[in-house]
Amino acid sequence: MAFSMHSHSGQFCPGHAKDQLEVIIQTAIARGFQSFALTEHMPRTSPADLYPEEVSLSLQESIDSLIPMHEAFLVEAVRLRAKYQDQIKILIGFEGEWIRPSYGPFILSLASHPDVDYFIGSVHHVHEIPIDYDKAFYDKAKNASGGTDELLFSDYFDSQLQMLQALKPRVVGHFDLIRLLAEEPNQDLRMWPKIWEKIERNLKVIVEQGGLLEINSSALRKGLKEPYPARAITEKFLKMGGKMTLSDDSHGIDQVGTNFGRAVDFLENLGAHEVFLLESRGELKNLKAVGVKLVDIKSSLK
Question: In the chain, what are the domains?
Fold first, then answer.
């Protein structure tokens, strides 16, 4: 039973992703997915938080367009969920943007919408600077932390803790995204004892909150040797009794299910036999974590 808990479309993330939402769902069906979550990036509230490709005629006009686009996404997602209900189960959510603590109440207000099943708790910024957009932004954030990767990683995991404590997300996105543009993105983070302490601290919070930590295969298509999170982190989380979920973090039809085989192999090599999917039990927002065997995911992918 193939599924993904994290995806984006060009229709509602223009410039950041590609393709219409309906075509992405059709692609997921064709590739053997039985469940697929629609989780576009949330709107932001300040012009300072726009990415370069989002800046149009004016900063304020760009910002003013984001909430109507989010509302249009929810309407279209509900329509598509009904249209394809006999072929695939669709969850509707969004990816949270923990840029600063003041975003917490706004994220929770978006999550309270009756059509939203859940949201992904993610951190893409440190010191309000994107850390996965390009090397120039990454270096700017690193300099704001004191000039080293280790100091930036420390600030990243502290910001992640703030997010976890404030939002208690059902799904935690790309836990160690901070690795992507680092000098040594594939290093074992146990080499930095103080960073590892913060990683263990955050993992413990996720377990205590009953959150799902995603194995995010997008790290593989971006050139990293392991998915998010890396082996040592995933292994530690599993030993804590944590529950993993599975995401392609696709940004268009070309990425639906990309590297899922490698991600499943990665989990099997760690001794895992299942991941968990959020499923509706017939009551609005009453989502339960249901185990899905890794062998069943492999066998259903096309």
Answer: 2-300 (3.20.20.140)
